[in-house]
Write a structure and sequence with these properties.
By secondary structure, the chain is an alpha/beta fold. It has eleven helices and ten strands. The protein has an eight-stranded mixed sheet with strand order 3-4-2-1-5-9-10-8, sandwiched between helices. It starts with 10 loop residues before the first helix and ends with a strand.
């Protein structure tokens, strides 16, 4: 169907058909991918009060289990160490000193993995942990070890869970955000698809939280053209990234032939709905 030939006197019908076609493309990208890296942002893992959203984690593990039963392999890049640290040690929540923040991540990483272990254990799936820094990707010997470990874990049905090693990272060895970390992981593992879960449906022409006229961009063929056509805002409360880091992640993966999906992780059964073509997102096409 040629969308240009649709009559626009019925906007509801036009956009209904339009989103159906776009969602089918998203569904196809997910269904045709076997090796999938999924990044979950801090805002998705945090409730409004800043504590861990364990209900989401349980639901997400169940959705991952469904994909694994379909023959897919999952690598998870999970933010949320600081959120988990705040949940555990509430009196440190307002401390901004870098040493306290790193110590908070140290405490939180344990709690984060504990909750992920519980969530996947319910599905009969084991997890493994990898804490990485920029140095690990730039060192040929270490990056090879990461790659081999990932292949071994997923081949044995284990879900690797990756995070930046925030407790020891400093500017020189810090990637800085898990959007770019997940992109580097996808490239190193030779993934078929990268999915970033955030707190918005995808890339908009402007900030949809402040501009009701902002339009969702469903497919991105040219990232340089995208940058010229949108307004990039700041990061939000819990996350370290923002739209800019998500575009950077897409720039990294698409040149290696890996498409990227940006979707709203807070939506119910989002992973299943994306596969079924029932959820909106932005699809960055691979070069």
């Amino acid at each position: 169907m040629n969308l240009k030939n649709l009559r626009r006197d019925n906007d509801k019908n036009f956009y209904s058909v339009y989103y159906k076609i776009m969602n089918e493309n998203i569904s196809k990208a997910l269904k045709e991918s076997r090796k999938i890296v999924i990044k979950i942002g801090s805002n998705t893992l945090a409730k409004a009060d800043g504590t861990q959203n364990t209900e989401f984690m349980a639901s997400f593990a169940e959705q991952c289990a469904k994909l694994i039963k379909e023959g897919k392999q999952i690598v998870l890049v999970s933010s949320g160490a600081q959120v988990a640290g705040v949940s555990t040690t509430k009196e440190w929540a307002r401390k901004k000193d870098v040493h306290y923040r790193q110590a908070l991540c140290s405490i939180g990483q344990v709690e984060l993995m504990h909750q992920w272990r519980k969530a996947f254990q319910t599905q009969g799936i084991h997890i493994g942990q990898l804490l990485l820094t920029k140095d690990d990707f730039e060192n040929e010997h270490r990056s090879l070890n990461i790659r081999n470990t990932l292949f071994t874990l997923v081949d044995e049905g284990v879900v690797p869970i990756i995070n930046e090693n925030d407790s020891v990272s400093f500017d020189e060895i810090k990637i800085g955000d898990n959007d770019n970390l997940s992109a580097l992981t996808a490239i190193l593992w030779s993934a078929d698809l990268l999915i970033l879960f955030s707190d918005i449906d995808g890339i908009y022409s402007d900030n949809p939280k402040t501009n009701k006229d902002a339009k969702l961009i469903e497919t991105v063929k040219s990232i340089p053209d995208l940058r010229k056509s949108i307004t990039i805002g700041d990061t939000n409360s819990f996350g370290t990234g923002g739209i800019e880091t998500k575009i950077q992640a897409a720039e990294k993966t698409t040149v290696y032939g890996i498409p990227m999906l940006l979707a709203n992780g807070s939506k119910e059964n989002v992973l299943v709905n994306l596969e079924n073509g029932n959820s909106n997102a932005t699809l960055f096409l691979a070069e």
